[in-house]
Amino acid sequence: MDCKNPLENLETNLEMFIENVRQIRIIVSDFQAQGQNVLNQKIQGLVTGLQEIDKLKSQVQNVHVPFEVFDYIDQGKNPQLYTKDCIDKARSKNEEVKGKIDAYRKFKANMVLELQKTFPNELNKYRALRGDE
Protein backbone atom coordinates (compact mmCIF):
# COMPACT_ATOMS: atom_id res chain seq x y z
CA MET A 1 0.00 0.00 0.00
CA ASP A 2 2.93 2.36 0.56
CA CYS A 3 3.53 2.75 -3.19
CA LYS A 4 0.22 4.63 -3.52
CA ASN A 5 -0.19 8.28 -2.79
CA PRO A 6 -1.67 9.21 0.62
CA LEU A 7 -5.15 9.85 -0.78
CA GLU A 8 -5.22 6.46 -2.49
CA ASN A 9 -4.07 4.82 0.76
CA LEU A 10 -6.84 6.59 2.66
CA GLU A 11 -9.42 5.67 0.03
CA THR A 12 -8.37 2.00 0.13
CA ASN A 13 -8.53 1.93 3.93
CA LEU A 14 -11.93 3.62 3.96
CA GLU A 15 -13.27 1.14 1.40
CA MET A 16 -12.01 -1.79 3.49
CA PHE A 17 -13.52 -0.19 6.61
CA ILE A 18 -16.89 0.28 4.89
CA GLU A 19 -16.86 -3.32 3.67
CA ASN A 20 -16.08 -4.52 7.20
CA VAL A 21 -18.99 -2.47 8.59
CA ARG A 22 -21.27 -3.93 5.90
CA GLN A 23 -20.24 -7.46 6.87
CA ILE A 24 -20.81 -6.72 10.58
CA ARG A 25 -24.28 -5.42 9.76
CA ILE A 26 -25.10 -8.67 7.95
CA ILE A 27 -23.80 -10.78 10.84
CA VAL A 28 -25.68 -8.75 13.45
CA SER A 29 -28.95 -8.62 11.49
CA ASP A 30 -29.13 -12.42 11.48
CA PHE A 31 -27.12 -13.09 14.63
CA GLN A 32 -26.66 -16.63 15.85
CA ALA A 33 -24.55 -17.68 18.81
CA GLN A 34 -22.11 -19.71 16.70
CA GLY A 35 -21.24 -16.50 14.80
CA GLN A 36 -19.88 -14.78 17.91
CA ASN A 37 -16.23 -15.52 17.07
CA VAL A 38 -16.63 -14.17 13.54
CA LEU A 39 -18.37 -11.08 14.92
CA ASN A 40 -15.55 -10.56 17.42
CA GLN A 41 -12.97 -10.84 14.61
CA LYS A 42 -14.91 -8.34 12.49
CA ILE A 43 -15.16 -5.90 15.41
CA GLN A 44 -11.43 -6.26 15.99
CA GLY A 45 -10.95 -5.59 12.27
CA LEU A 46 -13.09 -2.49 12.69
CA VAL A 47 -10.84 -1.23 15.49
CA THR A 48 -7.72 -2.01 13.45
CA GLY A 49 -9.23 -0.23 10.44
CA LEU A 50 -9.92 2.88 12.52
CA GLN A 51 -6.34 2.80 13.81
CA GLU A 52 -5.01 2.56 10.22
CA ILE A 53 -7.22 5.46 9.12
CA ASP A 54 -6.01 7.48 12.11
CA LYS A 55 -2.38 6.82 11.11
CA LEU A 56 -3.06 8.20 7.63
CA LYS A 57 -4.58 11.47 8.83
CA SER A 58 -1.19 13.20 9.13
CA GLN A 59 -0.49 12.46 5.45
CA VAL A 60 -3.66 14.17 4.23
CA GLN A 61 -3.88 17.15 6.60
CA ASN A 62 -3.17 19.66 3.84
CA VAL A 63 -6.01 18.40 1.67
CA HIS A 64 -8.88 20.88 1.67
CA VAL A 65 -12.35 19.69 0.77
CA PRO A 66 -15.01 22.31 0.04
CA PHE A 67 -17.94 22.10 2.45
CA GLU A 68 -20.29 21.85 -0.53
CA VAL A 69 -18.87 18.38 -1.24
CA PHE A 70 -20.22 17.23 2.12
CA ASP A 71 -23.61 18.68 1.17
CA TYR A 72 -23.53 16.53 -1.97
CA ILE A 73 -22.73 13.47 0.12
CA ASP A 74 -25.50 14.31 2.63
CA GLN A 75 -27.95 14.60 -0.26
CA GLY A 76 -26.93 11.15 -1.48
CA LYS A 77 -25.18 12.56 -4.56
CA ASN A 78 -21.86 11.37 -5.89
CA PRO A 79 -19.22 13.86 -4.66
CA GLN A 80 -17.55 13.70 -8.08
CA LEU A 81 -20.61 15.51 -9.44
CA TYR A 82 -19.49 18.53 -7.42
CA THR A 83 -16.54 19.07 -9.77
CA LYS A 84 -18.76 18.70 -12.83
CA ASP A 85 -21.30 21.14 -11.41
CA CYS A 86 -18.53 23.64 -10.57
CA ILE A 87 -17.23 23.44 -14.13
CA ASP A 88 -20.76 23.87 -15.53
CA LYS A 89 -21.35 26.91 -13.29
CA ALA A 90 -17.97 28.38 -14.30
CA ARG A 91 -18.80 27.89 -17.99
CA SER A 92 -22.17 29.54 -17.55
CA LYS A 93 -20.65 32.47 -15.65
CA ASN A 94 -17.89 32.74 -18.25
CA GLU A 95 -20.48 33.01 -21.05
CA GLU A 96 -22.39 35.63 -19.05
CA VAL A 97 -19.24 37.69 -18.44
CA LYS A 98 -18.16 37.31 -22.07
CA GLY A 99 -21.56 38.67 -23.13
CA LYS A 100 -21.11 41.66 -20.84
CA ILE A 101 -17.61 42.30 -22.17
CA ASP A 102 -18.91 42.18 -25.74
CA ALA A 103 -21.73 44.58 -24.82
CA TYR A 104 -19.27 47.00 -23.21
CA ARG A 105 -16.99 46.82 -26.27
CA LYS A 106 -19.91 47.65 -28.56
CA PHE A 107 -20.95 50.46 -26.23
CA LYS A 108 -17.41 51.86 -26.22
CA ALA A 109 -17.19 51.68 -30.02
CA ASN A 110 -20.54 53.48 -30.38
CA MET A 111 -19.59 56.03 -27.76
CA VAL A 112 -16.28 56.76 -29.50
CA LEU A 113 -18.13 57.22 -32.83
CA GLU A 114 -20.59 59.63 -31.25
CA LEU A 115 -17.83 61.50 -29.40
CA GLN A 116 -15.88 61.75 -32.65
CA LYS A 117 -18.91 63.33 -34.32
CA THR A 118 -19.68 65.70 -31.43
CA PHE A 119 -16.22 66.50 -30.00
CA PRO A 120 -13.65 65.65 -32.70
CA ASN A 121 -10.87 67.91 -31.36
CA GLU A 122 -11.24 66.77 -27.76
CA LEU A 123 -11.31 63.10 -28.77
CA ASN A 124 -8.19 63.51 -30.88
CA LYS A 125 -6.40 65.14 -27.93
CA TYR A 126 -7.59 62.32 -25.66
CA ARG A 127 -6.31 59.70 -28.10
CA ALA A 128 -2.98 61.50 -28.39
CA LEU A 129 -2.59 61.51 -24.62
CA ARG A 130 -3.40 57.81 -24.39
CA GLY A 131 -1.26 56.91 -27.40
CA ASP A 132 -4.26 55.32 -29.17
CA GLU A 133 -3.57 56.79 -32.58
Structure characterization notes:
The structure is a single chain. With 133 residues, the protein is mostly helical. The protein has helices at residues 6-29, 36-56, 67-74, 80-118, 120-130. The chain folds into 2 domains: 1-63; 65-132.
Low-confidence stretches: none
What separation lies between the terminal Cα atoms? Answer: 66 Å
- The helicity comes to over 70%
> Tell me about the biggest sheet?
none
Radius of gyration: 31 Å
Q: What does the average pLDDT come to?
A: 89
The general outline is rod-shaped
Strand content: under 5%
Return the domain count. 2
Q: What structural class do you assign from the helix and strand content?
A: mainly alpha
Main location: nucleus
Family: Belongs to the Mediator complex subunit 10 family.
GO molecular function: transcription coregulator activity
GO cellular component, one term: mediator complex
Question: Helices, strands, pairings?
Answer:
Elements: H1 6-29, H2 36-56, H3 67-74, H4 80-118, H5 120-130
Quick tags:
single chain, 133 residues, mainly alpha, 2 domains, 5 helices, 0% strand, rod-shaped, transcription coregulator activity, activator, Mediator of RNA polymerase II transcription subunit 10
